[in-house]
Here is the input.
Amino acid sequence: MESYEDLLKRARAALPEKTLSNERFEPPVAEIMMQGNKTLIRNFDAICQKLRREPALLSKYMGRELAVPATLDGGKLVLHGKKYERQISEKLGNFISAFVICKECKRPDTKLVESGGVRTLVCEACGARAPAR
Here is the structure.
């Protein structure tokens, strides 16, 4: 019969290796370009990929929060109005807080699950579930 310590060592060896890197999540920075009365976010597709969210969700959010019509043009987001980098960065940060970062463990390893018209933020790291507006 194995001792408790031996069983514990064997159980710990069977666990997946935890990533112990001190790498923190860095929010993506939007590359802004003014074009007449329009504002373009040139790296919009890359932002959506890093956040692991659908471009339609983020474009709808940005348009609503900045109070301007927003359209997708390839990998860019076109905001029909002059918006400055500070405003866009603030709204992007708010989106990340509401739709990406886990409310419990504060990690960005989440996914959005929609059931019955209610969006739920599900954390893949700790398993927490929280409603997303």
About this structure: The mean pLDDT is 88. The radius of gyration is 20 Å. The first strand starts at residue 32 and ends at 35. The chain has two domains: 27-100, 103-133.
